[in-house]
Amino acid sequence: MAIIKRFRALTILSIILLGLTWISPDRGTNALSLTGDSLIDMFSLLPPILVLVGLIDQWVDKKVLIKFMGDDSKFLGVIVALLLGGLAAGPMYIAFPIAITLLKKGANIRYVVFFLGVWTTAKLPIVLFEVAAFGWQYTFIHVSVGLIFFYFVGVFFEKRFDPKTLVKEDITSNDK
């Protein structure tokens, strides 16, 4: 019973998917196919990212990260978060392990939230697509408003949450 509670969302979604397949076999088969493809994509991307996060955890000294993204980094923290998020590639679920590692290493929550916002709105491939599809004016307005919004959301999170309560430290953590 404990395993069902732990995987409650997965269990509910699986029951819904099976119910859809029973009610409408064509739609259910299509949904199952899309779900399988998404799982394959996720499981092919996640292991390399977790290895990368592990390497970042081991190779990046905590003092260096605090210097570039800590409480006293000011504008440098914004630039580093902008570069990390803007040059990234891949879906959003890849950004979360990186964000947790940044928090564990002492990055300011403002810059971590800004990094996540940049990942969603201002990644280089997305910006290039928007320029080609919608033009420079739309892209400039969209990215500018998004960056300003996520910066202030980061400021709000910094005032509202204590980073120590957001990240559970484990015994095997090797912070330098």
Automatic annotation (TrEMBL):
InterPro entries: DUF318 (IPR005524)
Annotated localization: Cell membrane
Membrane topology value: Multi-pass membrane protein
TM ranges: 75-96, 108-129, 135-157
Stored Pfam families: ArsP_1 (PF03773)
Keywords, alphabetical: Cell membrane, Membrane, Transmembrane, Transmembrane helix
GO CC field: plasma membrane
Iron among keywords: no
Family: Belongs to the UPF0718 family.
Name the record gives this protein: Predicted permease
